[in-house]
């Protein structure tokens, strides 16, 4: 990957787009300093929104989009322009976008007063906003998503000329621009609301933890636990990426952070390059479904369904565990098949020592989980979690400067007492922020403290940079939502799904799966989920699938799209690290993530897997009995799919043995007479047969 050396290096980076993130730093010279300052201003605004917001929601969304456009054009100019003229042009265009966002604030009362009757200036600003969002998204993510959204805009303008049933009644230019650029069902819809509140805050939360050393903690713990086991480096990759998912929720970010360490490590210990990169891509994409943070989609889903975020977390827990268990099982079998060993004891850090050294980094995550499950809003829980993270980072830097152990213990005890005192009437952000302010003042008087303050400042700027791709995707996908809500064309697709479901729910699910994967070819998970959920999820709900299950079904296949060739964004991110073809990585990732393609069908037919009511076995076994049975069947099926995909259990498997394993897995997932009986019987047969082959295997163990 091309890198920019801090803020001083020349930055003529020839990228088609920045889907995998911008290079390091913020650009050359003064332009980099400008981007850095704007990033801090953006993050500071978002912190204000999270902690003390008194602004109307529409204003918050407008300013958020303004900052997104400003930084998108500014940074892309910094990294791609050949001279100062090009960079200045980028910042001027971005500034125009920022003014479009401010327009929502400056003329807030006027826009409400003449809602539905836009002025000429309203139309000019709305049209400019649309053009800048489309061009900014193209610069960040390439052509796929803007072309898809552009096709929807064309249909919106000219769909009345199509034959029935594809036509609509027709809409004037001012109706479309007003709905798109000023309502709450276009650019400023639910996705951008979630981006402006929850998503940015949790990106900031993850950024602070990463700067504090959380990645190193996760890596050391993973190495300590699994480094010496058979094929240990790949298991480290799966486990570390799963842990990273608990704070970042971004698959691509996981690939380019954890993958920098795990992919070369796997290659070093004998894994094929494509397989090593496929493991990291599979595990990293799973970060979006791993509680407690999950990905941005989880926040959008909670807001769309009108449920607490903790409900989404609970529903995702078992399927996410199964997904990572599947990846873990796949690398275990691959290591056994090729006789790959673990790492030497001398190469492995102690998991216990790593936890002892950085135990305080776990506390914010634990507090976040506790607050989410106690019913606090994600916005409030994230704000407190972030404040606690900053307090712990600064507190650790302050105590490192104290020579006496007693003084260090005294500081932590005193800090705990102060926090308890200011929170005696419940957790409130103002007194907690006051404690953080005092710690900032104390830290400013020591060298280590000042270094920590600089790291915190860098986290603010980096989080703004990291939020651009997610935020712009949330903005542009509003064009599709706006088109669907105003034209009502979504009911047409829903009717097709319902029609198929009347004959076979399985066919309706397959159609939804294919839609998600096709839509996800080249576009991020967020817009894939939003589009599929808007089109298919309501139809699946009418067919009797619980609403949260139907939305999670669309979510899963949006993730799988990033692993599926020909585009496979996660594979593209891993390719330069592994120095391997993205297509080869994509096919390996599909094989490793095979269970991920199956799990959604399992929880549709067995809602107990997502802790939802309506499971057919609940009447006989009770709710928790149904949960246990569904989980057990899914685990056995995952084991069988792994055997079939890798071709190994205790010995290398023939094609016939793989076929039996596949039939057994499908029977366990099926819903016909004696399907479970046949599935378990075939499982016992194939496992015993493999056990008998074990003494004659070329590779027995490692």
Main sheet properties: none
Shape: globular
Helix count from the secondary structure assignment:
33
Q: How confident is the prediction overall: mean pLDDT? A: 80
Classify the helix fraction into a percent range.
over 70%
Distance between the termini: 35 Å
| Unreliable stretches | 1-16, 697-702
Beta-strand fraction estimate: under 5%
Report the C-alpha radius of gyration, rounded.
Answer: 26 Å
Class per helix and strand makeup? mainly alpha
Q: Give the tally of β-strands.
A: 0
Function: Part of the tripartite ATP-independent periplasmic (TRAP) transport system.
Membrane topology: Multi-pass membrane protein
Keywords: Cell inner membrane, Cell membrane, Membrane, Transmembrane, Transmembrane helix, Transport
Transmembrane segments: 61-81, 88-106, 141-158, 190-209, 274-300, 312-331, 352-373, 379-400, 407-423, 429-446, 467-484, 496-519, 526-549, 555-577, 589-611, 623-650
Describe this structure in words.
The chain is 73% helix and 0% strand. It has 702 residues and is an all-alpha fold. α2 (57-80) crosses α5, α17 packs antiparallel against α20 and α22 runs antiparallel to α23. The longest helix is centred in the middle third of the chain and has 30 residues, at 309-338. Mean pLDDT is 80; it is low at 1-16 and 697-702. Keywords: Cell inner membrane, Cell membrane, Membrane, Transmembrane, Transmembrane helix, Transport. Part of the tripartite ATP-independent periplasmic (TRAP) transport system.
